[in-house]
Amino acid sequence: MVARLDDRFSAYFDPREYAQVRLSQNSEFNGIGVQVTRFPADEEAEPRGLVVKVVYDGSPAEREGVEAGDRIVAVGGRSLRGVEQEEAVRRIKGPAGTDVALTVSRDGRRRELSIRRATVSIPVVASRLARAGERRVGVVALASFSSGAHAEVYEALRELRRRGAKGYVFDLRGNGGGFVNEAQLIASAFLRDGPIVTTRGRGVQERTLTATGDPVIASAPVVVLVDKDTASASEIVAGALQDRDRASVVGARTFGKGVFQEVIELSNGGALDITAGKYFTPGGRNLGGRGIRPDVTARDDLRTQDRDEALERALRVLAAEV
Question: What is the pLDDT of residue 40?
Fold first, then answer.
């Protein structure tokens, strides 16, 4: 029935799948412990697949020697050429305690790995001091808008401010979203009063979520760093800060998810995740299919593992503002 809706964002989860969804909402998942992205569009030298961007500390992947920059080209002996990223990731994930066979390529050399899946806790926020010109600035990366994520963002911002940060890069690359109320609270870290997002749907009442409380960073310059995998709640925050002239957006055009879902739990332990309406930025934009156009275009070159060109560009933009 859900498939007949022809809506890529609506889904039926059986009890096992819904258990995985609930884990992810708490920043956990069953898998090998990596963050991945697709091969660059111009890569033709090897079969398509996934590029490992991050290997989480203490994860099964780390124990088996997987490193950032490795390319996963097959799962269970089946090539990932032409396989969509979501399907490729689904093949790698699975119940904790089960094994998955991966073909991993590094510097043109392949190796076969058997990795035992486990329940992996994802660090939601990573932060550090950096330099933008002659000034200290803070870099805060958010992995997902999971429950309680706003508290970790607030804590990171306050600590960086205490250590002398005069501006901030808010890194939302690869962040596929999460809870809308977390987007409201996280945008409120930078905005005083005013609209953040408006939701509209046939079966739900229109409502506008506004900034709440006192902003953690009321006036210091902010750059939001995005990429093609920045989606949903991430786009709500980036769109609100861009529309209200609170931040410059740097990176690549975002995913373009302009709808939100309602979860209906079922008696068998599964759930329906059904599109319930659309959301609009403070400027009235619905981002469905279009995404956010960055103010400054930047892209990381996955072939240079010792550099992050997109972040470097964001820091240059921030340097001009601080």
Answer: 57
Mean pLDDT value of segment 36-48: 59
Does residue 214 carry a catalytic annotation? no
Instruction: Say which of 232, 234, 273, 308 is annotated catalytic.
Output: 232
Homologous superfamily, domain 125-321: 2-enoyl-CoA Hydratase; Chain A, domain 1 (3.90.226.10)
pLDDT in tens, 143-160: 999 999 999 999 999 999
The yes-or-no answer on residue 79 being catalytic is no
pTM: 0.82
- Annotated active-site residue 257? The verdict is yes
Which residue of the set 27, 248, 257, 308 is catalytic?
257
Question: What is the mean predicted confidence (pLDDT) over 102-124?
Answer: 93
Find the mean pLDDT for residues 196-221. Answer: 94
User: Each residue of 71-88: pLDDT tens digit?
Assistant: 999 999 999 988 888 889
Q: Which residue in 246, 242, 245, 219 sits closest to 292, CA to CA?
A: 242
Q: Helix 180-187 and helix 149-162: axis angle, to 10°?
A: 20
| E runs forming strands in 204-290 | 207-210, 222-226, 248-251, 259-265, 271-280
Instruction: Give me the catalytic one of 243, 273, 300, 308.
Output: 243
Could you please state the CATH topology (level 3) that the domain comprising 30-120 is classified under: Pdz3 Domain (2.30.42)
Q: Where are the alpha helices (DSSP H) in the chain?
A: 15-25, 60-63, 85-92, 149-162, 180-187, 233-243, 309-321
d(CA 296, CA 250): 5
